[in-house]
Structure formats: C-alpha cells, structure tokens
Amino acid sequence: MNDRLLNAESRVVVIQLCPEDLALAQRLHFWQHVRSRGGIIRLSILCVVATALFAGLLWLAGSGSDAVVPVLAFALATPFAILGFPFLITHVLGGVAARRTFRQQKTLHKPATLAWTEQGVVLQSDYGDARVPWADFRKARQDERMILLYESDRLYRVIPKRCLSAVQLADLQSCLVAAPPG
C-alpha cells in the first residue's frame, strides 16, 4: 500500500452518534454562544433592560431613593439569572432532550462516514453524501470531547473525538485551521 493511500485511509472514520454525543454537543454550543461577542452583547443589553424595568417599577411604586440598594442587588443578580436558566436547561435537562431527539430523529441512528482533506470534508451515510469545503463552514468549535463544524449559527455537524485516534484528531485539527474562525 503506498503512502498516499495510507494517508487517505487514515483520514476516514465511521461515526456512530449516541444520545450523550448530542447532549455534549448542545453544551459546547451553549458555551461557545455565551462566550461569543454577540452572546455577550445580548446578555449585556438584556441585563440593562431588565434592571431599568425593575428600577422603573420600583419608582412607580413610590420607593424613590429607597430603591437604590434593591436595584443594585437586582443588577448584580440579573446576569446569573439570565445565564442560569439556559445553563440548567442545557446541563440538567439536556440529557433528556438529547435522548428524545435521538429517539425521534432516525437519521442519527445510522453510522456516517467522515473523510477530510486540506480542501474540506465529505460526509456519507445511508441518507446521502455531503461535500463541504472548509471555507463554507462558518466556524469550528471544540472541547475535550467534541468538535462542532458550523454551517450556520445554529446548524452544526457533530464529530465526537472518541471516534478518532490521536493521529486522526491531530490531522483533523491541522485541517480545521482552514475553517473560518467565526
């Protein structure tokens, strides 16, 4: 077997998703969104608007200058509350939602083959093939267990790192640099 064929074969992996993969992908997506510039801006605007509404309600209730401490406490607690609900939904209830989604979406039950080159990825399954150049991905995100290849802000391809050998992971990560930073 020549080196070119060996290299091509090392860039092919079969991915069989499980409900846990979906939950982990959802968590990674949540955290990448929260840490993004747009996520921080939306969180900040929501906190300012919520605090202003709270202060306005206290002012209408006639609290006047007595409302300074409650408004400051509300302003400090608002970011935790605003992040807390999605965090709980993603981390506590995420497994339930992932299992339900996996049960409902039959396309997730079949294995898919992932192949990659310096130009892009090829995904093949019983449901069809997709050839996507790296430049067509909006961004790529990863943590210690998962890689997400984003085709839009909310649509991503899930690649569990458990399906890759250490050599394959390093090779795929070297190709990921061609994906836009997002």
Task: Please characterize this protein's 3D structure.
This protein has 182 residues and is α+β, with helices and mostly antiparallel strands. The protein folds into two domains: 3-16 and 111-176, Roll (PH-domain like); 27-98, no CATH class. The protein has helices spanning 3-10, 19-34, 37-60, 68-91, 94-104, 166-176, and strands at 12-15, 112-116, 120-125, 128-133, 139-142, 146-150, 156-160. The longest helix is centred in the first third of the chain and has 24 residues, at 37-60. The relative contact order is 0.16.
Structural class call reads alpha+beta
| Strand content bin | 15-25%
Low-confidence segments, given as residue ranges, are 1-6
Q: What's the CATH architecture name of the largest domain?
A: Roll
What's the quick description here?
By secondary structure, the chain is an alpha+beta fold.
Architecture blueprint of SSEs:
Blueprint lengths: L2 H8 L1 E4 L3 H16 L2 H24 L7 H24 L2 H11 L7 E5 L3 E6 L2 E6 L5 E4 L3 E5 L5 E5 L5 H11 L6
Antiparallel strand pairs: 1-2, 2-3, 3-4, 5-6, 6-7
Helix pairs in contact: 2-4, 2-5, 3-4
Using brief descriptors, characterize the structure shown:
single chain; 182 residues; alpha+beta; PH-domain like; four-stranded antiparallel sheet; three-stranded antiparallel sheet; 6 helices; 52% helix; elongated; disordered N terminus
